[in-house]
Amino acid sequence: MSNIHSESNIVELRADGYLKNMNDWTPELAEKIALKEGITLTEQHWDVLNIMREYYAEYNTSPILKLLRRELAMQYGKERATLASLDALFPNGVQTQGSRLAGVPLAQLDVELEQEHRVQSVQGTNAAAKSRQDDVNDTFDFNGKTIHVYASGNLSSLEDWNEDLADVLAKKENIELTDEHWKVIHFLRKFYFQYGIAPMVKVLIKHMSEELGQDSAKRSKLYALFPGGPARQGSRIAGLPSPQGCIDD
Predict the structure, then answer these.
(1) pLDDT digits (tens, 9 = 90+) for 84-119
(2) Is the pTM of this model over 0.90?
(3) How far apart (Å, rounded) are the C-alpha atoms in residues 58 and 42?
(4) What domains are there in the chain, each with its CATH number?
């Protein structure tokens, strides 16, 4: 762990260069950290950093690269969102270096979080022995195959999912799937396989509104379809991992 001076304070940095306390972040501190990394922040740097910070403030999770590039393209044009443009601004990678300078956590794909958990479980025998919310704790038979389910109700293997299984999963939650349910389920799956994360409800509403229209993404309508939460319950039925961040707020 290292320190950096900010105004009259000494701010602690973790070994990986991220702030130990994100509340310590200030624009002045970002400038100082950037200079230590050989970067003089320009307006274009700040456009990226501000999007990262606004996204984190809104969703309590950092934007993965594809979502960051999408927001940049929408606000500033596609040229500003190219990998070449971002690499020129952040030579050590916009996700690692950019999030470090923006004072937000490093974004991770669902598969990366799952791999990280498995590594930690293998490395710590006590941790491996303890049950977690995400540990497989239930199985049931479906068409001659044993389906494994986490304690959260999500499938442990995405490859097990198909539409017939979705009907079974929905019935377990007292839901009879209609065309309106399927519209949400298909959107959840499209989002996951495009971006690598299951969307929390705020992200789901934002993207559904932009792509399918506001009538399809009304909060009241989504909760009427999925009373257990369109993000949490919807992702379970869609065969996806649990969403990250503030899931159904």
Answers:
(1) 999 999 999 999 999 999 999 999 887 666 655 444
(2) no
(3) 24
(4) 2-102 (no CATH), 114-237 (1.10.10.370)
